[in-house]
Structure formats: C-alpha cells, structure tokens
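Dear H.,

Thanks for agreeing to be a second pair of eyes. The structure we're designing against is below in token form, covering all 152 positions.
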C-alpha cells in the first residue's frame, strides 16, 4: 500500500545520500534489504509504507544529531525537515504540537501565576503553567508535545 509520499529535488537527494551512507556501514542482512528497498523507492520517486518507516528512522537520527546540516548544509536540512513532516511520524508530531497549542490558546489574556520546566528523563520535560487558577502540564519528549493534566 503506497503512503503517497513523493520524493523530489533536494529532499530526494538527502534521502538517497543518507540511505546509501548507512547501507555502506550496515552488516545486518535484513537492514541492508530495507535500505536497498528505500534506495529503489527514492529512485522511483514515491515511498511505500515500509520505505517511509525506514526513511523516518534515517531522518530522525540525522536531524537530531545535526548530521544532515553538517553534510548537506542548511538547505539540505530544511529539505529533510519538510520531507519528515510529510511522513507519518512527522505528521503525528505536528498534530500533537497543534493540539497543545490549541489548548494553550484558551489561556491567552489571563494572568500568569507561575511557570516551571522540569527535566523528567533524558530528552523529556514537563512544562507546568499556572494561569488564573488553572494548572496545565505539558510533556515534551520524542513522542511529541502532550497535554498531561489540567487542574483547577
């Protein structure tokens, strides 16, 4: 089943370059097969679900470590970000951020009573905001931004 993700231009170049770079280092036969399928799909210009998942893993790692910017420059990094946002995982992260933004919009114009950020685990944070007698907690981590509690 095709995911409908078209690959063109600089995004396709970054995807192809990363897949080829990782393929050159991977020994595991199953991973090599997934990467070869990804390379073929990039060449065809469209990803099926399995290739989209493999590309998501490559882009997440490359974006988080700064490798994509270092190797492909700011333009390549931006192309990879645009592509990532089209992939299922990127769409999920965008949706979670939108949901939290919508919840926070209800607090606009109300007096801020307090705010705190707590590191809960490596790469995971809890943001707590008190506004006009309302306490809101938001978790930020690899799974996205999530409203975790609202209390009066």
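And this is the sequence the design step returned. I haven't edited it by hand at all.
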């Amino acid at each position: 089943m095709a995911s409908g993700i078209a690959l063109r231009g600089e995004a396709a170049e970054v995807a192809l370059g990363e897949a080829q770079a990782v393929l050159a280092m991977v020994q595991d036969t199953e991973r090599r097969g997934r990467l070869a399928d990804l390379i073929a799909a990039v060449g065809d210009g469209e990803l099926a679900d399995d290739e989209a998942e493999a590309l998501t893993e490559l882009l997440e790692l490359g974006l988080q470590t700064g490798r994509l910017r270092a190797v492909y420059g700011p333009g390549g990094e931006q192309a990879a970000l645009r592509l990532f946002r089209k992939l299922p995982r990127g769409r999920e992260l965008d949706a979670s951020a939108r949901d939290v933004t919508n919840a926070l919009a209800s607090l606009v114009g109300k007096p801020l009573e307090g705010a705190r950020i707590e590191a809960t685990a490596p790469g995971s944070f809890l943001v707590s905001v008190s506004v006009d007698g309302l306490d809101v907690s938001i978790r930020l981590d690899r799974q996205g931004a999530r409203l975790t509690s609202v209390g009066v």
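Two observations from my side: Helices lie at 9-25, 29-44, 49-65, 67-86, 88-105. The first helix runs from residue 9 to 25.

Warmly,
E.
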